[in-house]
Design goal:
Structural class: mainly alpha
Radius of gyration: 19 Å
Helix content: 40-55%
Strand order of the largest sheet: 3-2-1-4
Number of strands: 4
Length: 278
Amino acid sequence: MPLLTPDLLTLDAPLTVKFLQLFLAEEVRKVGFQRLVLGLSGGIDSALAAYLAVGALGRENVRVVSMPYKLSSPDSLAHAQLVADDLGLEMLVEPITPMVDAYLATHADASKLRQGNLMARMRMVTLYDHSAAWNALVLGTSNKTELLLGYGTQHGDLASALNPLGDLYKTQVRQLSRHVGVPAAVIDKPPSADLWEGQSDEAELGFTYDEVDRLLVALVDERRSPAEVEALGFARPMIDQVLKRIRLNQFKRRTPLLPKISARTLDKDFHYLRDWGS
């Protein structure tokens, strides 16, 4: 499937990594913090975020936490440990099973979706407690593909103070991960949120990340119309499905919507830079 600008998904890896590290160092320090904490899942996104964080602030200012559930794959914990060991970090292991099961004990009818959302939110509860205890900002790990498709949980994995991966498509995350030296076992395994046994991101989405990233670049970055994108060789059902997901999940990508009552409303005409007042 060609693109009118085929190189848009290819990054200057050394320059991009340097930029993201400078971004993290500046944005953390100018709001009065020195440290970052993130969940290390054993997947490629959190792995790359950890490498960027250590490059930006040093290993002494980065805390990584693994938060397995009883049904999580043992490989996830092993792969997270590979990353922590490579970076010289002590990985804290905080199982979320007691918290999740305590809730599910009185909600036995919870669907897999509800259970997955609960796990994601319990993990973020844990990270924000570490944030308060260690005086650190929570680092996000959701990539641009996931954000556009709404493939994440509000106040769960989508919650963070700042996110270095938010403008990187999944295929670009892979490219930068190879550059910084993320272990091959982490890069090459099938993407999974590891919410239940056998769960696979691409199986749930119905297409591969490589396919959808090329489509998203055409729709979002190149601003091509559905007809133009279809002429490039993309199937119309996939185009319609992706456009629908982007549209319906816009609410996940913005702050809560506020009605305008006063002369100046926080999300409408009371706009200041993130570091205003620092």
